[in-house]
Write a structure and sequence with these properties.
This protein has 238 residues and is of the alpha+beta class. The chain contains 7 helices and 10 strands. Helices cover 39% and strands 25% of the residues. A hairpin with a 5-residue loop joins β1 and β2.
Length: 238
């Protein structure tokens, strides 16, 4: 694939404890988007997409329903987004996205992950300019021209389209996510998205030196173990 991106599924662990962490992270995201935009998926496109993504990652229905019910209450936790940037082992560029109800605690926890792996946490904007904030839609197909035509007719700004191994990958700016998804659903009846996410996609990738690989794995593991961390993006070539 010409542009590297890491699907959330790739980092899902097999143990029940790790799955519980994944369920918790989905539950938190669903709660936040439901509280912000309403609990009806038909009227809240962000919630509908989040539910679809959770189901694809085999999150149980009761986890989804509990998060929505919690959002109906109106009170509860007040989560805020937090983003941290820096350089991980092997000088790879890293973006860490969090949802937190205690920014001071979260910053401290993330900083420990950097310092204990000889990494360097930076200031806002220190590496994000080297990533594209992209919507990524992957589905079965091999006719790039018809896909591009459908998107152009819907006035969608397309960054890139790739076709490989019977799969088409569409990249658009993150602001075009809902428009692109709807245009494809309208043009191709019954379309099923293998990947349906907004991510930070690195503009360039770099290999991790052999001597730093073990520390890099430890770095990712420490971050993924934090409850407040939702996603980790990097430009490491694995």
């Amino acid at each position: 694939m010409g542009r590297a991106f890491q699907n959330r599924k790739e980092s899902m662990a097999k143990t029940s404890d790790a799955k519980a962490k994944v369920y918790s992270k989905y539950g938190r995201e669903i709660y936040v988007v439901a509280k912000a935009g309403g609990v009806d998926p038909d009227g809240n496109l962000a919630l509908r997409s989040m539910i679809d993504r959770a189901k694809k990652d085999q999150v149980p229905s009761h986890v989804i329903e509990k998060a929505i019910e919690k959002a109906k209450g109106g009170g509860g936790e007040d989560f805020a987004t937090a983003r941290y940037e820096g350089y991980g082992p092997g000088s790879c560029m890293v973006i860490v996205d969090c949802l937190t109800d205690n920014p001071n605690r979260t910053f401290g926890d993330v900083r420990i992950c950097f310092t204990k792996t000889k990494s360097k946490i930076g200031t806002q904007g220190s590496v994000s300019h080297m990533f594209d904030h992209s919507a990524i839609l992957v589905f079965s197909g091999d006719d790039e021209d018809s896909v591009l035509e459908a998107l152009m007719e819907a006035d969608v700004d397309v960054s890139d389209i790739e076709s490989e191994d019977g799969k088409i990958t569409v990249f658009t700016p993150h602001t075009e996510y809902f428009k692109a998804k709807q245009a494809l659903a309208d043009a191709f009846e019954g379309i099923d998205f293998d990947v349906d996410e907004i991510q930070f996609v690195p503009q360039t990738t770099a290999p991790i030196p052999e001597a730093d690989k073990e520390m890099f794995d430890k770095f990712l593991e420490m971050l993924n173990d934090l409850d407040d961390v939702q996603n980790v993006y990097h430009n490491a070539e694995l």
